[in-house]
Design a protein that fits this description.
mainly alpha, about 0% strand
Length: about 475
């Protein structure tokens, strides 16, 4: 079931109505309802993979209990959970990649190997709910939290439907306490949630899907287009992936707020960043902080010398690239971002831009604008590898962009899309101090005008709606 589908438009009001009819005094029933709704939501994609989700939930729940009940066996249960979780992730997500890469490497020595590969689709959301369980087990092992003893509550933490298939990656310390306490219906929060859902749908359907139509054509038929046109395709893909993934996150956060639950923020206007370090503090925040807390800091973080910090940074970005998919393109993408961030690591300037750009001003200074444009250009270049079918394909696109045809008029000039993107950027810039762009936009207007804005957004979404497009991060 997709957030941008008719089935979800029927599913959400039904669950919302039943949930609040139950009432806050029946917290257990509310959680049971949300859990069954979450399992139904996931089963609509492919019910056969429900066993993976339930097995992973059972494994980590009982691992947490065993680590507390048998302190002398803590390490055994900890590593058992880690190995099984990563084992499932490795088999379903990475087995074919390693098998085919091994066969290709062997062929360089004149040996022919026909690898046995799995003919199975990747279970949607496996990377996300696996990381939920891993953080929970690690936190118990490190004695940061106590094991949860209510299986329904823990299961809901892992599989809460707004975040189940594409995050944000939640922490037990943040989400479990909300699941365990009574939740009051708050009209203002519910309205705010609907407003964020509306903005997320706008980003997905009006921005991401319209950019995707052109970007997919240009990337899939790159031989037929000039360097200037392929550069346009790379820029459109940058807006596609941002509108798609941050749009999903907005819908997820807004949906959770309808049920009185606050999820972790996942995006904070990353394309207004003034350097790559700031970009990674603003892009897919839940994953970046997960790697920081559970990999980077255990490796030593920034406490060691310069070479230690460089090593740890490269490890983080390589793992991040590999997390995104079993393809060398993602690894190169991770390496590029590691290289981008090196100057700020070496010169200790990676925390120079912690505030919102032009926080007290209407427009950025010329220096800030140049920094934003340079950061965006570097990001777009890296996105080419992320989107390309192979590393060779990425280099082909880059060589075309670097040719004399870069100075020709693009073969595709989507004027209507340019106008939409301009409006989108202005709205994002205007709302950059808020959790999402239209949270406070127009709130001081008279009611008819404010509602006119919302109806305009709804009509725009319906106008550009067509065939349901899956969210990009479902494949991760």
């Amino acid at each position: 079931m997709l957030f941008n589908s008719l089935s979800f438009a029927l599913f959400l009001p039904l669950i919302f109505t039943l949930y609040w009819l139950i009432g806050k005094k029946q917290l257990r029933l509310q959680n049971v309802l949300l859990l069954f709704a979450s399992y139904f939501f996931y089963a609509c994609w492919d019910w056969r993979f429900m066993f993976l989700l339930i097995f992973s939930t059972l494994l980590d729940f009982f691992t947490g209990l065993k680590m507390e009940q048998k302190p002398n066996q803590r390490k055994f249960w900890f590593w058992l959970s880690i190995c099984i979780n990563l084992g499932f992730l490795g088999v379903f997500k990475y087995y074919n990649f390693f098998a085919e890469s091994f066969a290709e490497a062997i062929s360089n020595f004149g040996l022919k190997v026909n690898p046995w590969t799995l003919k199975v689709i990747l279970p949607v959301g496996i990377s996300f709910y696996t990381f939920h369980g891993l953080s929970y087990v690690i936190d118990i092992y490190k004695q940061r939290i106590k094991a949860e003893r209510n299986f329904i509550d823990y299961s809901l933490f892992v599989s809460f439907f707004p975040l189940l298939v594409a995050g944000p990656i939640e922490r037990a310390t943040h989400l479990l306490p909300q699941i365990k306490r009574a939740r009051n219906f708050d009209y203002s929060k519910a309205v705010d949630g609907l407003r964020q859902i509306l903005w997320g749908l706008f980003k997905k359907i009006v921005i991401a899907d319209q950019c995707a139509t052109i970007a997919n054509t240009l990337f899939n038929h790159s031989d037929a287009y000039s360097g200037s046109t392929l550069l346009l395709g790379a820029i459109l893909f940058a807006f596609q992936i941002y509108g798609d993934f941050s749009g999903y996150s907005d819908i997820a956060l807004g949906t959770a707020r309808l049920f009185g639950i606050e999820l972790l923020r996942n995006f904070a206007y990353p394309y207004f960043s003034r350097d790559i370090a700031e970009f990674w503090r603003r892009w897919h925040i839940s994953l970046s902080t997960w790697f920081r807390d559970y990999l980077y800091i255990p490796l030593g973080g920034s406490k060691g010398g310069t070479w230690s910090k460089i090593r740890n940074t490269f490890i983080i970005f390589l793992v991040s690239g590999f997390w995104h998919g079993a393809n060398w393109t993602f690894i190169v993408w991770g390496l590029l971002n590691a290289l981008y961030i090196m100057p700020s690591i070496i010169f200790n300037t990676n925390r120079s831009n912690l505030d919102i750009v032009a926080a007290e001003r209407t427009w950025p200074s010329f220096k800030e604008l140049l920094a934003i444009m340079l950061t965006f250009a570097l990001t777009v270049f890296a996105w080419i590898f992320f989107r390309a079918n192979s590393v060779q394909h990425a280099f082909h696109i880059i060589s075309s962009i670097g040719s004399a045809s870069l100075f020709s008029i693009p073969q595709v000039l989507p004027i209507k899309l340019f106008l939409l993107l301009t409006l989108f950027i202005l709205l994002e810039w205007n709302g950059r101090n808020e959790p999402y762009a239209i949270q406070k936009f127009g709130l001081m207007w008279i009611k008819p005008v404010r509602w006119g804005l919302y109806y305009a957004l709804v009509l725009t979404i319906f106008y550009f709606s067509g065939e349901e497009q899956q969210f990009i991060y479902f494949q991760f």
